[in-house]
Design a protein that fits this description.
Layout: H1 8-21, H2 34-42, H3 47-50, E1 54-58, E2 64-68, E3 75-77, E4 89-91, H4 93-103, E5 114-118, E6 122-124, E7 142-144, E8 147-151, H5 155-158, E9 173-175, E10 183-187
Parallel strand pairs: 1-3
Antiparallel strand pairs: 1-2, 3-4, 4-5, 5-8, 6-7, 8-10, 9-10
Bound molecules: copper (II) ion (CU).
Protein backbone atom coordinates (compact mmCIF):
# COMPACT_ATOMS: atom_id res chain seq x y z
CA UNK A 1 0.00 0.00 0.00
CA UNK A 2 1.20 3.52 0.56
CA UNK A 3 3.66 3.72 3.43
CA UNK A 4 7.22 4.25 2.33
CA UNK A 5 10.66 3.75 3.74
CA UNK A 6 13.28 6.45 3.91
CA UNK A 7 16.64 4.95 3.19
CA UNK A 8 19.45 6.08 1.00
CA UNK A 9 19.08 3.38 -1.59
CA UNK A 10 15.38 3.90 -2.02
CA UNK A 11 15.70 7.67 -2.06
CA UNK A 12 18.24 7.48 -4.84
CA UNK A 13 16.02 5.25 -6.94
CA UNK A 14 13.07 7.49 -6.23
CA UNK A 15 14.95 10.65 -7.12
CA UNK A 16 16.04 9.32 -10.46
CA UNK A 17 12.54 8.01 -11.15
CA UNK A 18 11.01 11.34 -10.29
CA UNK A 19 13.51 13.16 -12.46
CA UNK A 20 12.76 10.88 -15.37
CA UNK A 21 9.05 11.22 -14.96
CA UNK A 22 9.16 14.95 -14.26
CA UNK A 23 6.92 14.36 -11.27
CA UNK A 24 8.50 16.86 -8.94
CA UNK A 25 9.93 20.29 -9.45
CA UNK A 26 13.23 21.31 -7.89
CA UNK A 27 11.57 22.25 -4.61
CA UNK A 28 10.41 18.95 -3.12
CA UNK A 29 9.00 20.69 -0.08
CA UNK A 30 6.31 22.52 -1.98
CA UNK A 31 3.12 20.50 -2.49
CA UNK A 32 2.97 18.93 -5.94
CA UNK A 33 0.87 20.71 -8.56
CA UNK A 34 -2.16 19.01 -10.08
CA UNK A 35 -0.10 18.39 -13.21
CA UNK A 36 2.62 16.70 -11.19
CA UNK A 37 0.09 14.62 -9.30
CA UNK A 38 -1.51 13.46 -12.55
CA UNK A 39 1.93 12.50 -13.93
CA UNK A 40 2.59 10.48 -10.77
CA UNK A 41 -0.84 8.82 -10.75
CA UNK A 42 -0.71 7.65 -14.36
CA UNK A 43 2.66 5.97 -13.76
CA UNK A 44 0.92 3.31 -11.65
CA UNK A 45 -0.74 1.51 -14.58
CA UNK A 46 -0.05 0.62 -18.21
CA UNK A 47 -0.32 3.78 -20.35
CA UNK A 48 -3.47 2.69 -22.14
CA UNK A 49 -5.22 2.10 -18.81
CA UNK A 50 -4.16 5.27 -17.02
CA UNK A 51 -4.76 7.40 -20.12
CA UNK A 52 -8.53 7.07 -19.69
CA UNK A 53 -8.64 6.78 -15.90
CA UNK A 54 -10.10 9.26 -13.45
CA UNK A 55 -7.35 10.89 -11.38
CA UNK A 56 -8.07 11.75 -7.76
CA UNK A 57 -5.92 13.20 -5.00
CA UNK A 58 -6.50 12.42 -1.35
CA UNK A 59 -6.71 15.63 0.67
CA UNK A 60 -5.38 15.97 4.21
CA UNK A 61 -8.87 15.34 5.64
CA UNK A 62 -9.14 12.05 3.73
CA UNK A 63 -11.55 13.44 1.14
CA UNK A 64 -10.93 12.79 -2.54
CA UNK A 65 -10.52 15.61 -5.01
CA UNK A 66 -10.98 14.80 -8.70
CA UNK A 67 -8.14 16.16 -10.82
CA UNK A 68 -9.34 14.67 -14.09
CA UNK A 69 -12.50 12.77 -14.97
CA UNK A 70 -11.95 9.49 -16.82
CA UNK A 71 -14.02 7.05 -18.85
CA UNK A 72 -12.74 3.50 -18.29
CA UNK A 73 -13.82 2.81 -14.70
CA UNK A 74 -10.27 3.00 -13.33
CA UNK A 75 -9.20 5.56 -10.74
CA UNK A 76 -5.56 6.51 -10.25
CA UNK A 77 -4.11 8.20 -7.17
CA UNK A 78 -0.71 9.93 -7.11
CA UNK A 79 2.17 9.25 -4.80
CA UNK A 80 1.51 10.44 -1.27
CA UNK A 81 4.12 13.22 -0.82
CA UNK A 82 4.11 12.66 2.95
CA UNK A 83 5.91 9.39 2.31
CA UNK A 84 9.39 9.41 0.74
CA UNK A 85 8.92 7.27 -2.35
CA UNK A 86 6.66 6.56 -5.28
CA UNK A 87 3.47 4.72 -4.35
CA UNK A 88 0.85 5.73 -6.91
CA UNK A 89 -1.97 3.29 -7.61
CA UNK A 90 -4.65 2.67 -10.25
CA UNK A 91 -7.73 0.67 -9.32
CA UNK A 92 -11.10 -0.50 -10.51
CA UNK A 93 -14.37 0.54 -8.86
CA UNK A 94 -14.44 -2.30 -6.34
CA UNK A 95 -10.86 -1.61 -5.28
CA UNK A 96 -11.68 2.08 -4.91
CA UNK A 97 -14.52 1.20 -2.54
CA UNK A 98 -12.14 -1.09 -0.67
CA UNK A 99 -9.62 1.75 -0.26
CA UNK A 100 -12.37 4.05 1.00
CA UNK A 101 -13.34 1.41 3.58
CA UNK A 102 -9.72 0.99 4.68
CA UNK A 103 -9.16 4.75 5.05
CA UNK A 104 -12.43 5.09 6.99
CA UNK A 105 -11.67 2.07 9.22
CA UNK A 106 -14.90 0.47 7.99
CA UNK A 107 -15.34 -3.17 6.93
CA UNK A 108 -14.94 -3.60 3.17
CA UNK A 109 -17.97 -4.89 1.27
CA UNK A 110 -18.10 -8.67 1.01
CA UNK A 111 -18.20 -10.33 -2.39
CA UNK A 112 -16.65 -7.35 -4.22
CA UNK A 113 -13.29 -8.42 -5.56
CA UNK A 114 -11.17 -5.50 -6.72
CA UNK A 115 -8.03 -5.15 -8.80
CA UNK A 116 -5.25 -2.57 -8.47
CA UNK A 117 -2.05 -1.72 -10.29
CA UNK A 118 1.00 -0.43 -8.43
CA UNK A 119 3.53 -0.56 -11.23
CA UNK A 120 5.77 2.05 -9.59
CA UNK A 121 6.08 -0.20 -6.53
CA UNK A 122 5.34 0.60 -2.92
CA UNK A 123 6.65 0.31 0.61
CA UNK A 124 4.64 -0.47 3.72
CA UNK A 125 5.42 0.08 7.37
CA UNK A 126 4.10 -3.34 8.33
CA UNK A 127 2.87 -6.50 6.64
CA UNK A 128 0.58 -7.20 9.59
CA UNK A 129 -0.91 -3.84 10.70
CA UNK A 130 -3.07 -1.96 8.16
CA UNK A 131 -2.64 1.27 10.09
CA UNK A 132 1.06 1.22 10.96
CA UNK A 133 2.77 4.44 9.94
CA UNK A 134 6.27 3.44 10.90
CA UNK A 135 8.15 0.20 11.56
CA UNK A 136 8.26 -1.36 15.03
CA UNK A 137 11.30 -3.20 16.48
CA UNK A 138 9.93 -6.60 15.48
CA UNK A 139 8.21 -5.37 12.37
CA UNK A 140 10.29 -3.76 9.63
CA UNK A 141 9.37 -2.03 6.41
CA UNK A 142 8.15 -4.16 3.55
CA UNK A 143 9.40 -3.10 0.14
CA UNK A 144 7.65 -4.37 -2.96
CA UNK A 145 8.59 -3.66 -6.54
CA UNK A 146 6.07 -3.19 -9.33
CA UNK A 147 3.03 -5.27 -8.43
CA UNK A 148 -0.71 -5.77 -8.82
CA UNK A 149 -3.14 -6.35 -5.98
CA UNK A 150 -6.31 -8.38 -5.50
CA UNK A 151 -8.53 -6.98 -2.74
CA UNK A 152 -11.88 -8.04 -1.30
CA UNK A 153 -11.60 -11.75 -2.10
CA UNK A 154 -12.83 -14.51 0.21
CA UNK A 155 -10.51 -15.75 2.96
CA UNK A 156 -10.15 -19.01 1.06
CA UNK A 157 -8.40 -17.19 -1.78
CA UNK A 158 -5.81 -15.63 0.51
CA UNK A 159 -5.28 -19.00 2.21
CA UNK A 160 -3.61 -20.12 -1.02
CA UNK A 161 -0.69 -17.71 -0.48
CA UNK A 162 2.09 -17.07 2.06
CA UNK A 163 1.09 -14.83 4.97
CA UNK A 164 4.43 -14.23 6.65
CA UNK A 165 4.94 -11.08 8.69
CA UNK A 166 8.27 -10.87 6.89
CA UNK A 167 7.29 -11.84 3.35
CA UNK A 168 9.36 -12.66 0.30
CA UNK A 169 8.09 -9.80 -1.88
CA UNK A 170 9.47 -11.35 -5.07
CA UNK A 171 6.59 -13.83 -5.12
CA UNK A 172 2.86 -13.37 -4.44
CA UNK A 173 2.05 -12.88 -0.75
CA UNK A 174 -0.75 -11.72 1.51
CA UNK A 175 -0.49 -8.32 3.15
CA UNK A 176 -2.35 -7.63 6.42
CA UNK A 177 -3.40 -11.29 6.68
CA UNK A 178 -6.29 -12.07 8.98
CA UNK A 179 -7.53 -8.47 9.03
CA UNK A 180 -10.54 -7.21 7.07
CA UNK A 181 -8.02 -5.59 4.72
CA UNK A 182 -5.98 -8.63 3.76
CA UNK A 183 -5.06 -8.52 0.09
CA UNK A 184 -2.82 -10.26 -2.40
CA UNK A 185 0.38 -8.53 -3.48
CA UNK A 186 1.59 -10.04 -6.77
CA UNK A 187 4.88 -8.86 -8.29
CA UNK A 188 4.94 -8.37 -12.05
CA UNK A 189 8.72 -8.21 -12.48
CU1 LIG B 1 0.34 -2.47 -3.21
Amino acid sequence: MRQLIKNVCNTMIVSSLLLTMNVYTADKNSPPSDKEMIASAVSAAPAKVSKNATIVAMEADGKMRTLRQGTNGFTCMPDNPATPGPDPMCMDKNAMEWVHAWVAHKPPATGKIGFMYMLAGGTDASNTDPYATKPAPNNHWVKTGPHVMIVGADAGFYDLYPKSADPDTSVPYVMWAGTPYQHLMAPVK
